[in-house]
Design goal:
Number of helices: 4
Shape: elongated
Distance between the termini: 34 Å
Structural class: mainly alpha
Largest sheet: none
Order of helices and strands: HHHH
Strand content: under 5%
Radius of gyration: 20 Å
Oligomer: single chain
Helix content: 55-70%
Length: 81
């Protein structure tokens, strides 16, 4: 495991500590902040994987009398804005 230093908001540190304590109670073993962060990242990745996938045809506009794509919708789908 590689050790890195990252700046995070103080409010997030408290939340990580609460999750760490809950995980320790649940698993009855010592849990590190790294494990908490790793678990959160894994869960986020799984949530993203479950999201609807769009084909290029959905993003390209009108294809064979399909609906026209709105530029704002494309930005939302592609960039999450």
């Amino acid at each position: 495991m590689e050790y890195v230093t990252k700046k995070i908001p103080k409010s997030l540190v408290g939340r990580i500590n609460v999750l760490k304590a809950r995980m320790q109670i649940r698993s009855r073993r010592k849990v590190t902040e790294g494990e908490v962060i790793s678990m959160a990242i894994n869960r986020l990745e799984n949530d993203i994987e479950k999201e609807k996938r769009y084909s290029l045809a959905d993003l390209a506009g009108t294809i064979k009398k399909g609906k026209k794509s709105d530029p704002d919708e494309i930005d939302r789908i592609v960039y999450g804005v």
